[in-house]
Amino acid sequence: MPGPYDAFLRRKNERLPHRARPLTAADTPHAGLEQVLAAQLDSSVDRLLPELQDLSRAIHADPELGFEEVRTVDRIADLLAVHGVPAQVGAFGLPTALRARAGSGEPRVAVVAEYDALPDIGHGCGHNIIAASAIGAFLALREIVARTGGTVELIGTPAEENGGGKELILRAGGFDGIGAAVMAHPGNRDVASWSSLAGVRRLEATFTGAAAHAAAAPFLGRNALDATVLAYQGIAMLRQHMLPTDRVHVIVPEGGDVANVVPERASLRGSVRSLDLDTLAVLSARVEDVLRGAALATGTELSLTWDPTPPYLPMRPNLTLCARYVRALEDRRETWWHVDTGDSSGSTDMGNVSYWVPAIHPTIAAAPIGMPSHSGQMAEQSITEAGDAAIRDAARALARVAGDFLADAQLREAVADEFDRSGGPQRASDVLPGYH
Ligand SMILES: [Zn+2]
Ligand SMILES: [Zn+2]
């Protein structure tokens, strides 16, 4: 459907190739997997494909929100059981997390699955494709892991959309000892690494004033709704003076009950996003100032909670692994190695994983350019032929990247070197001021 932003989106997409770093042979000199094993991964994925597509459709038809993915995680465990793999449902202290393993000892590589849906629009983020491709990659790798040596783990992570399941799994030690973690997310481009996945912190603010008869004694009241309105407007004014890549969005979930009582309590809930950790800290502090100013101006008390759910760190993609991903798909898709859009596109809790272990979060094209994520259109798109092709290609590519990692000691060294140069292992609590 044509819309007023078509021309804008077209220009933006036309600019992208100039901001894309192409991969050269020198970028990934590693041998990786033996050709015969790589070919075996491909044919295993092809053999599994009907089951993966069925799984994707079953997850899609029965969408469950974050931390409530009970039937979804059972479906995944059932498919693994059909292939003789016992899966631990309820791993890491989270009822809808999942863990399965194949092989033994070092090195260890993790394939990460997401499977939560969005309220009202179901799988408008296409996590059914993520789940199916991750399980496909894991099952294919299981067939060759005795030849490569090492361990492959499937880590099923709940609540990417709203709860930071990966951060909770990190805290429970779920990624300790893992040498690399891989997943792929459907979108409308083939890109191994975007520069635009921001860090995000949530906030919950409650203003408490004094109730009074709104007509008989308004002078005795202190209006908590006024405080939220002022804060909302203050944040709107702040937007003019933020980085163009910063994002703040707030809602007012609670603003009084009846019009003839001065609202005693009102609240505001929001998200603050920025591409870098230090700018995220600055933006958080500026938003906090606006909230405190609103309380002062209205004579109300502010109670402010940062990070009621875990913050998401910006994505720190391991470009050495991204290069292997591009290589793995070379004969099927033209995938850009790294794209710097100068833009902000959203956030993922895979960011937190990427600060702890080398990780990748490529976008696999499953939709036409311009189709927005988190939309009803994208939900429908994720069970089309293009969605199924994304499952196959992402499963093959993730299996090959993980296989390369297990098989090639020099590659592992290069991956670890890059990770150390970019700051080494860090936790959200190490790098975000005020977060514990
Ligand atoms: Zn999403
Ligand atoms: Zn998503």
What is the gist of this entry?
The chain is an alpha/beta fold and 436 residues long. Helix content is 41%, strand content 17%. A hairpin with an 8-residue loop joins strand 2 and strand 3.
Structure, explained:
It is a single chain. This protein has 436 residues and is α/β, with parallel strands linked by helices. It folds into 2 domains: 309 residues, Zn peptidases (Aminopeptidase); 105 residues, Alpha-Beta Plaits (2-Layer Sandwich). The strands form 4 sheets. A 6-stranded mixed beta sheet has the order 2-3-5-4-6-13, sandwiched between helices. A hairpin with an 8-residue loop joins strand 2 and strand 3. The site of one zinc ion (ZN) has 3 residues, from loops.
Strand count, sense and closure of the main sheet? 6 strands, mixed
User: What is the N-to-C order of secondary-structure elements (H for helix, E for strand)?
Assistant: HEHHEEEHHEHEEEHEEHEHEHEEHHHH
The N- to C-terminal Cα distance equals 46 Å
CATH class of the largest domain: Alpha Beta
Count structural domains.
2
The CATH superfamily of the largest domain appears as Zn peptidases
| Strand adjacency order, main sheet | 2-3-5-4-6-13
**CATH fold-level assignment of the largest domain:** Aminopeptidase
Helix content: 40-55%
Number of discrete helical segments: 14
Q: Indicate the CATH architecture of the largest domain.
A: 3-Layer(aba) Sandwich
Cα-atom Rg, whole angstroms?
23 Å
